[in-house]
Amino acid sequence: MLDLAEINLPWLDEPKMPAKGDYAHEHTLRWKQTIDGLDGLIMVSPQYNGSIPAPLKNAIDTLYGEWENKPILLVTYGFRGGTLAAEHLETVFKIIKAHLLEPRVAITATDEDRIEAGTLADPAGLVGRSRAELDAGLRALEEAIRR
Ligand SMILES: Cc1cc2nc3c(=O)[nH]c(=O)nc-3n(C[C@H](O)[C@H](O)[C@H](O)COP(=O)(O)O)c2cc1C
Description:
Blueprint: H1 4-7, H2 26-36, E1 41-46, H3 54-61, E2 71-78, H4 83-96, E3 99-100, E4 105-108, E5 114-116, E6 119-120, H5 123-128, H6 131-146
Parallel strand pairs: 1-2, 2-3, 2-4
Antiparallel strand pairs: 5-6
Bound molecules: flavin mononucleotide (FMN).
Flavin mononucleotide binds at residues 46-50, 77-80, 82, 109, 118.
């Protein structure tokens, strides 16, 4: 489990374009090693104003070649499943050549699902509503990793 809040990457501060892969900073090298070490990943993102939160975009933009062909199962959430965030990620993935797996998983979290901001009443139940898509997505991830 990689939590961007814990990893706490600085806003992109590399002197050269990440596409050159010539990183100057220790924190970038650590992030590179983390992503290089993954056969694939499940990327979980909320939708903020029709897109993804800035720290996720920053974490993607900090690297480049490391994402190439990386199988990614996308799980978005929001009041309407975060599908606009997923669309934006699809565009970004085309540029960085990441392998976006289908199906994507879109979890709708309504006000009734929350006890208060940041706290879900029944997290397992909420995720369980998307069980079929999650199972299909996980199968796609397994197959992509085995290939
Ligand atoms: C700044 C901001 C913008 C948001 N914009 C959207 C939106 O465009 N569509 C949507 O469905 N939900 C939107 N939401 C609701 C979030 O997706 C929802 O609250 C989600 O649970 C936030 O996840 P987090 O608590 O992990 O940040 C927004 C929330 C915030 C804080």
